[in-house]
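step=encode ok
step=design start
structure_in=
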């Protein structure tokens, strides 16, 4: 049964609308003004709101703006006996589904309610479909090593909460993937995850990017802009490379996390935001704090939960599985048949010094798929991958293998040293 909230300071209007709607088999609740409406919205969920414009304590237009933040998908039908066409247009611009004059035409009101519910159902279905699509796009976390298993277990435990998470790890290890899985495991999964690369945005623009700006706030501000915090309302904000954020921006982010409110650049109105913040960095933030480049109070706000993503060189046992996964992925992208990869080739890949981590491995696999023949062999790995990134330990093994004993190796070294001295 659909649930409708009637918001009006006239008891007679509320009673009349309640009788009509209950006769139409709707469940009805009432609020005396905009303030009471917001309180009820925080406690319960409604399919449609019917709200008067002229009310005590908080009028309908102000309440409408706050409803759009608290329950952005709930359609609001505005009613008024004192409004003109400008008021109606203004209400629709601010997010009202429709505007009806008092006394309302009952047939039109019922049709409007049905249309509003149809729209609400479509929005819900669309979000479910988007959620399914986004889940299909989020890649699996490949690997069975101890470090990866611990990381997955932490994601499973922390994901359903609203706790802030700080993801640490070298470049190319998959910190963004961890952030996406935290979002997918949360109750916010049907809301957006908004990503911000703090290192890619100039320091003078980062505040506008995060908090938005009003028209005329600075020279090139030709129109109002909604910032990332507002875009992520109800969802997750992923702050990548947080260690590269300027100190002035850090101060504003700290305030936003403390108060759950932001102010656009050039504006004076405070805007309530409900976001879960997940941050990531490849820097040692403790050292950045000591150097005066990162705020310690912001660090403690962000690091409620810390997830460390292991470097690929620390999880070499996962490389064969990752390599097979990337071969299948690259072949699918290129529309070619899946190429088999020889066991010896997997062994050689596990010996490479992967300074660029998973990103480098993925690029190497793409190179092998393109340049190899019917199958990827150990020789292909040695030719196209190892010349530039063979692990030092493996190169030493290759040198040692040339000599039958330690004495023979030491004799060779002495000979080479003598040649060097005589040169």
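sequence_out=
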């Amino acid at each position: 049964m659909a649930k409708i909230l009637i918001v009006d300071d006239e008891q007679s209007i509320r009673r009349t609308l309640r009788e009509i709607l209950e006769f139409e088999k709707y469940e009805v609740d009432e609020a005396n003004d905009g303030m009471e409406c917001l309180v009820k919205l925080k406690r319960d969920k409604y399919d449609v709101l019917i709200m008067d414009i002229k009310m005590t304590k908080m009028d309908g237009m102000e309440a409408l703006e706050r409803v759009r933040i608290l329950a952005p998908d709930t359609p609001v039908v505005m009613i008024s006996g004192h409004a003109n066409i400008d008021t109606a247009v203004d209400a629709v611009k601010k997010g009202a589904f429709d505007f009806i004059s008092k006394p309302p035409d009952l047939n039109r009101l019922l049709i409007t309610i049905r249309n509003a519910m149809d729209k609400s159902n479509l929005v819900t279905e669309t979000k479910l479909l988007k959620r399914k699509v986004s889940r299909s796009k989020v890649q699996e976390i490949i690997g069975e090593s101890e470090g990866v298993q611990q990381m997955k277990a932490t994601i499973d435990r922390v994901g359903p909460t609203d706790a802030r998470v700080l993801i640490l790890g070298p470049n190319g290890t998959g910190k963004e993937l961890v952030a996406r899985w935290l979002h997918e495991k949360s109750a916010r999964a049907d809301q957006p995850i908004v990503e911000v690369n703090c290192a890619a945005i100039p320091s003078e623009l980062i505040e506008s990017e995060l908090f938005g700006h009003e028209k005329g706030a600075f020279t090139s501000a030709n129109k109002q802009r909604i910032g990332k915090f507002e875009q992520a309302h109800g969802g997750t904000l992923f702050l990548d490379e947080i260690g590269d954020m300027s100190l002035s921006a850090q101060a504003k982010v700290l305030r936003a996390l403390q108060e759950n409110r932001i102010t656009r650049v050039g504006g004076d109105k405070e805007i309530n935001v409900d976001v879960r913040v997940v941050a990531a960095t490849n820097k040692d933030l403790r050292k950045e704090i000591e150097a005066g480049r990162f705020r310690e109070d912001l660090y403690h706000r962000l690091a409620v939960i810390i997830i460390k993503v292991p470097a690929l060189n620390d999880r070499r046992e996962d490389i064969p599985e990752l390599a097979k996964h990337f071969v299948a992925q690259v072949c699918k992208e290129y529309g070619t048949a899946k190429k088999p990869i020889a066991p010896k080739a997997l062994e050689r890949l596990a010996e490479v010094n992967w300074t660029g981590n998973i990103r480098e491995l993925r690029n190497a696999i793409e190179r092998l798929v393109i340049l190899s023949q019917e199958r990827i062999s150990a020789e292909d790995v040695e030719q196209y991958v190892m010349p530039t990134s063979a692990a030092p330990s493996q190169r030493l093994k290759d040198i040692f293998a040339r000599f039958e004993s330690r004495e023979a190796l030491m004799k060779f070294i002495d000979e080479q040293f003598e040649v060097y001295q005589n040169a």
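step=design ok
step=annotate ok -> The two ends are 94 Å apart (CA to CA).
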